[in-house]
Amino acid sequence: MASDGVGAEVSNKQVIFRDYVTGFPKESDMHVTSGTIRLEVPEGSNSVLVKNLYLSCDPYMRGRMNPSTDAGYIGSFTPGSPINGYGVAKVLDSGHTNFKKGDLVWGITGWEEYSLITAPEALFKIQHTDVPLSYYTGILGMPGMTAYAGFYEICSPKKGENVFISAASGAVGQLVGQFAKLLGCYVVGSAGSKDKVDLLKEKFGFDEAFNYKEEPDLAAALKRYFPGGIDIYFENVGGKMLDAVLLNMRVHCRIAACGMISQYNLEKPEGVHNLTNVILRQARIEGFLAPNYYHKYPQLLELVLPYIREGKITYVEDKTEGIESGPAALVGLFRGRNVGKQVVVVARE
Amino acid sequence: MASDGVGAEVSNKQVIFRDYVTGFPKESDMHVTSGTIRLEVPEGSNSVLVKNLYLSCDPYMRGRMNPSTDAGYIGSFTPGSPINGYGVAKVLDSGHTNFKKGDLVWGITGWEEYSLITAPEALFKIQHTDVPLSYYTGILGMPGMTAYAGFYEICSPKKGENVFISAASGAVGQLVGQFAKLLGCYVVGSAGSKDKVDLLKEKFGFDEAFNYKEEPDLAAALKRYFPGGIDIYFENVGGKMLDAVLLNMRVHCRIAACGMISQYNLEKPEGVHNLTNVILRQARIEGFLAPNYYHKYPQLLELVLPYIREGKITYVEDKTEGIESGPAALVGLFRGRNVGKQVVVVARE
C-alpha cells in the first residue's frame, strides 16, 4: 500500500438503485450501502480511478428510473447497481494518457465515494479552478451547456425579444434568464414558491416572475406579463404551462424544449390542447439534448467564465452534505424542494 | 353597355356566410343568393373586376367561420356577406396598371360569379395556360406553395429519409408525397377510405398507404410501416395521429405542421400526450403558412411545370359544377368526402 493511498483497499459508500419506479420516486427507491474498492486502475486498463467530490441531481435522471424502453437517451439505471450521473471528481490513478493523478474532471461518474471510470474519453478535464468546483455540475457543466445550446442555438434570440422561462430558478433556468437579460431581452420566469420568485427578481435580475401554484389560469397570467406575446419560451416543465404558452405566442415564437419535469412522474402525461396555434403563429417547438453540443463547450467557458469572475452572472446552488443525503436530494428535485442547482457534496477535495 | 359585356349590370350569384359556426359546418351555414353587379371598375379606382372561374375549398377556411378572436391568419368571414377564398378568375375590367382585360389571375376572390377586387396587388397573374387552369387552385396555387414550403423549406429532406404524410390524398398531401418520391424517400400516407388509399399507392406512387379509420392503434400502424422510425412527418390532421407519430420518431425528426383538420370542428381540441419525446428524439415541430413563402412562387413553377408536362407529377382534383354546389363542397371537406383537391367550377372561361 502506497503512502499516498493509491492501491489501498478502502470502504466505498454507494447509492444503489433498487428497482424501476412508477410515479414520483421515493427515497426508498434507493439505498446506501458500503462496499470496498481498491484505489488503483487494473493493470493494462485505460480506465481512471476517481474520488467523487460533487454529484449532480438532474431532472433527466427520472427517465433513467424507467425500464430501458422509455428511459431516454442514456439508458436505464441498473437495479442493484449504483446510480450514476454527472459529477466532479479528482483522479487518483489513471491508465489513460489524457489523465494523470491529481487532475480534476467532470462527466458521468457513479453515485459512490470512488469510481472506476472505464470510458474516460467522455470526461472533461477541469482547467479553471478559480471558480467553485461544484459549478462544473451546473453553470460550467451539463446544465450550462443546456442553457447555452437551448438559448443561443435553438432560440436564435434577438435583443428586445420577450422571453419566458419555466422552472426558472433551477440549474438551467437561472442561467437562461441571465443570458437573456445580458442580451437585452424582457425576461419573465415562473417557479413554485415565493422564495424562488424573489430569487428570480432580486438575484437573477428577471424583469418579472410569478409563482405558478398561485395562478389558477396560467394563460391569463402569461397574458398579463406578455400583453404583446412571447417570442421565446424556454420549456422546462411541459403540460399545462406549455398549453398556456401556446395561447400566448407571438408570430415566429420559438420554444426550446429542454425538459418537461411536470410530466415525468405521471403514469399518463397530460394532454396538450393548443397545438393548432403552432401553425397560426408559425411557431417552432424544438427538442434538444446538451451532449449533442459538447463540441461547443469551449465557447460556453469563454462566455461565462468572465461573467462569473466579474460578478455579472451569479449561480445559486442548493448543496446537501454527504453521499447519504443523495437519495433525498434527488427525490426532492421532483417535488421542487431545491432552491437553485441541486448538488450533493461527497467530499470537498 | 359595351358589346363585350363590360359595363353591363348582370346578375351575380353569391354564397353568403350566415353566421359563426360551432362544431362541424353545415351547408345551411351558407346560402346562395343572387344580386347584381356592374361589370366595370368604378371611375378612379385601381380595383379589378373579375369573372370567377374556379373556387378553392381549403381546410383553413374552417377557422374563418369562427369569431375573429380565433379565426387564424386571414380573419373571419363576415356574417351576411359572401365567403371569399382562393380562386382562379378572368379580368373583365381593370383600374390597375398590372392587369388588363383578359388576364387570368389566381388569388383571394369572392364566392360569387363576379367580384370587384379592391387590392389586386395580391393577385398572381397566370402565365402558363398549357396546364389545366383549375390547377392554380391547387398544385400551382396556395396548396402547391404549401407543399413546397412545408417539404423543402421546413423539413430539409434528404434522399432515403422516411416520410409520413397524413391526409395524404388531399390538395397538399398528394403533392408532398410525390415530391418525396422524386427525391428518393420512402413515403407512406394515411387517408380515410379505401379509394384514397388505392390512389396513394397506384396513382401517386407512395410506397405504402393505410386507412386510419381501420387502425385501432395508430402508433402500432406507424411502427409497422416505419420499423426504423419517421424522419419527416407532414402534419395535416393533428390530434391522435400526431400523438402516434411522436411515439415513432427517429432522432432529429422534423414535423411540418401544415394543418390539423381533425381538430378544427371540436369544441375542445384533443390532448396530445407524447410531447416529451420531442426532447428525447431532438425533434422539431414547426408551423408555417404558405403566404409567407409566396416570394418563392417562381421556384415552385420552375420545379413543377416540367414535371406536370412530362407526366412525372400527377394531380387529382375533385370538381363540383356550379357555384350552387359550393356550400356542399366546402362542408364535405371536413367530412373527408372529397377525393383529391376540392374545386368548385363556377365557369370554365
UniProtKB/TrEMBL annotation, chains A, B:
Domain of life: Eukaryota
Gene Ontology MF: a single term: 2-alkenal reductase [NAD(P)H] activity
Top-rank EC class of the record's enzyme: oxidoreductase
Enzyme Commission no: 1.3.1.74
Keyword Transferase recorded: no
Any coiled-coil regions, as ranges: none
Keyword annotations of the record: NADP, Oxidoreductase
Limits of the Enoyl reductase (ER) domain: 35-344
GO terms for biological process, alphabetical: response to oxidative stress
Reactions catalysed: an n-alkanal + NAD(+) = an alk-2-enal + NADH + H(+); an n-alkanal + NADP(+) = an alk-2-enal + NADPH + H(+)
Pfam families hit by this protein: ADH_N_2, ADH_zinc_N
Family per record: Belongs to the NADP-dependent oxidoreductase L4BD family.
Listed PANTHER family: ENOYL REDUCTASE (ER) DOMAIN-CONTAINING PROTEIN, PROSTAGLANDIN REDUCTASE
Subunit architecture: Homodimer.
Name of the molecule in the record: 2-alkenal reductase [NAD(P)(+)]
Organism: Morella rubra
Lineage: Eukaryota, Viridiplantae, Streptophyta, Embryophyta, Tracheophyta
